[in-house]
Design goal:
389 residues, TIM Barrel, eight-stranded parallel β-sheet, 13% strand
Length: 389
Amino acid sequence: MINFQLFKNTKNCRNTNDFRTLAKAKLPSAIFHYIDGAADDEVTYRRNTEAYEKCDLIPNVLAGVEEIDTSVEVMGMKIDIPMFCSPTALQRLFHYDGERAVAKAAEKYGTLFGISSLGTVSLQEIGKTISTPKMFQFYCHKDKGVNDAMIEMCKQANFDAIALTVDTITGGNRERDLWTGFTTPPKLTPKSLISFVLHPNWSLNYLLREKFSLPQLEQHVNRGTNIAVSVGDYLSSMLDQSMDWKDAEEINRKWGKKFCLKGVMSVDDAKRAVDIGADAIMVSNHGGRQLDGCISPFEQLAEIVDAVGDRIDVICDGGIRRGTHVLKALSVGAKACSGGRWYLYALAAGGQLGVEKAISNMKNEIERDMKLMGVTKLSQLSRKNIKFR
């Protein structure tokens, strides 16, 4: 039996599951299950984390580990810890500060922060207020004017990188959202009303604070901004299903700075990413929210690293809950790791302080686990210190 009294605030949250427990208590049901849910039977969602348990670490001792360095360089950007906040949508639904809170927490700990095309704080504001490395998650819309406008926004806000999301050519079958009736903006129904009433703090913040909006899109589209729609329907109806490698190459050309493809899962696609001049790929299945039954990023990581790891930065995205997961991915050959739920639960649980605690927990685990592994720099990790079952 979980004692919910232990989790009244984020100070007592020691791990991702603790933050999840507190987030579930604080959020209306539909909002929580949007974060927590995935596609179909959610097999891939579970597998993303379970995959790490099939790999064991082999520690060395007597290595003199009093001073260690947890920094890495990815896409030419140095970050102080090898785990960063992957771009995720709709963050002001989870806490009224949304992306502001996550960006400030990432800045405090010197790591990369991503903001989505479906972000709820403007790129201009983030660009003016946040100095940590910044990545924009680019969704390729049918309306080419929207695409060009977002690229220009990134340039004006001096973002460091664009990550073109390539695994959302249509929306996944996110059945929890169908069950709960989740939409953006949230739609008031007899079913949702009960949950909103039972979570008055969230409801009052949503109603009385800054109006919910999608500032990157609101001048161009109504769906998701003024017209309530499920995220799956938005992806299926608004994004360009004809997008191909030539389009990705053209976006890279128009952007002209660091360029990443998010959602690469095959060796052949990783090689094509190199061919079009991408600086990085995020090995990701969208947190299990798109194609259920898909292989996990960690299971596919070694094959992709062996094929292209000497020519492009490979980032392992998804399923990470512990510092040991990060060390396993880096041992296989990833340059860095990223994820969404690990900090979104914390955002919902406690805003900026919650995200700071989540990043601090991860940093402390990585530091402690490096010492227990007998390494002083992350570059010392290799496949010699892991064994797959």
